[in-house]
Amino acid sequence: MEVEYDDSGWQGRTKQQSGAEELHEDNPQKTIQECLEKFLTPDYIMEPGIFTQLKRYFQSGGSPEEVISMLSENYKAVAQMANLLAEWLILAGVKVTEVQAMVENHLKEMILKSFDPKKADTIFTEEGETPDWLTEMIDHYTWRSLIYRLAEEYPDCLMLNFTIKLISDAGFQSEITSISTAAQQIEVFSRVLKTSIVKFLNNPDDVHGAIQECARMVCHGQHTYVYSQVLIQVLSQEQKGGFNMKRLSQEIIKYALQNNQNVTPITMALNGSAVYPQACQALTSMLTRNTLNPADITVLFRNYSGSDPPPIDLIRNPQFLELLVDALFRSGVKINPEHKPKYIFLLAYASSVIDQPAKKRPMTERTLNKDELKSTIQAIEKAHAICNVDQGSTELIAELQTLYNCIKYPVVGVGVIRWIENVVMEPSYFKLSTDSCPTHLAVLDEVAGVHPTLQQQILFLLIRLFESKQDELEILVQLEMKKMILDRMVNLLTRGCVVPVLRYIKQCCAIEDTDISLIRYFVTEVLETITHPYSAEFVQLFLPMVENEEITGTMRGEGDNDPVSEFIVHCKAHFITV
C-alpha angle with apex 191: 190 to 194, nearest 5 degrees? Predict the structure, then answer.
């Protein structure tokens, strides 16, 4: 716990500082007075620059007796008293780590209260280079976290911004979670952005979380948004993994729109739409207003049904596709029958046509693969006809085979999820439903089996239903409804959406706001469904629930032949559990 000080003083004084001191050396009395003012401050003998000041003082003819008297009288021994108290606490039985944390936290509080950015900046304006103590300071997480907090409060402080760059250079950029801190310097922001993109690429089981984290950082300001989107746009052109970057770019656009940020001009500038002014103007008009209109839809339809259509990426805009899906699949939306085929054509075109430069030809020439366009249009038309009619579960059963055939097309799957979400989120839906599993939710099971990429959307919908208030239903009916939703989650789990489902149920256990019988029901259903081998991540998430006596205590038998005991024994034998 001893505090060590460097007796060599801060090195590397600037020429200006040296020149100013030389002027003072020509006036010994002024130099002595300047030194005495410093010696009068409490505990100045502990300052790093004490030896430099003593040398100046004596060279100017200062009295040794006077300086000894001043330094001793103003010696308060604050640091030594802190060390002494720390040693007493350790002798009293407090752990060394706890004492160290107490001292460090108190120092952090004192620094946060008394930090002066102007004085901090003098470290560089006067010293000319990075002090050794600052380099040592960033090696410890406690002091790095202090720098992060200070940098948020004082974004214009030169010393803090430089220290943030030092931290980034040292490889700790993943710790810089404050966007405002990272956005101050392009080098720091670039490293943090790279870390965020790598996390998105390397975490397939938590894609949503990685996207949200990256999008939040990119959308911090206009400069961060433009810089990041240009960079991602360049990476999306790469043959290997470019589609992942294109998706990330689209998810960032979607996040920006959800937060009421108008990024349409930037998006249109990056997608090369200026070459096609008619299509660009029509699309920009709808995206800016966030609503479709027949006139602009007609312009786009005319452009894309012509012999030389614009690039398909122009209408593969997340916002535009959301508007088209809403118009065709959300209940209650009325479209003029004259224009409805144009809406369907544009949605089908954007989701099925393959547009790419032709090999061994000039880059300006493109090949358009429209093999699936006609069948996609027909599937959307049939699904729209079913979803656009207000019908109950009984009437829907007659249309199931047709709907299941249409669901094979991903764009129809997206639309059907939107339609079902609109229907089942109605407060009276479960009140009027008498089926053990409503037909609409059975359709979701089919979508989950056909399109793994849509499973996350389905899970979010099921979570909303599970957490929704159904106060009009009796308690027992509410429990049965939630069990039915848990059955849908178990179905998702069997289809491959394992980790997200288990994470949500684990969260329900941790918050303790879910009836324990529902958790028990979920665990029972999963145990009856699964078999080994299991992944380490699965065991880590599921085993604590199975071992919980409150959940599975009544499910265990006297021996080890019941599913609970068999699962626990297998995991203990094949995995190192904590």
Answer: 85
CA angle 441, 444, 449 (to 5 degrees): 140
CA atoms within 13 A on the CB side of 517: 7
Closest CA to 417 of 379, 469, 455, 470: 455
In the chain, the N- to C-terminal Cα span, in Å, equals: 33
pTM of the model: 0.68
245, two tokens: 């970057």
pLDDT for residue 449:
92
Read off the tokens for 262.
């108008």
Beta strands in 228-365 (DSSP E): 354-357
- H helix or E strand, kind and range, residue 367: strand 366-369
Give CA–CA dist 154/169, Å, rounded. Answer: 21
Task: Give the bridge partners for 355, in sequence order.
Answer: 368
Question: Residue 469 burial (CB < 10 Å; 0-12/13-18/19+)?
Answer: exposed
Tens-place pLDDT, residues 422-449: 888 887 777 777 677 788 888 999 999 9
Q: State residue 300's pLDDT score.
A: 94
Yes or no: say if 461 and 444 are a contact pair by the CB < 8 Å rule. Answer: yes
DSSP assignment of 483-534: HHHHHHHHHHHHTT-HHHHHHHHHHHHHHT-S-HHHHHHHHHHHHHH--S--
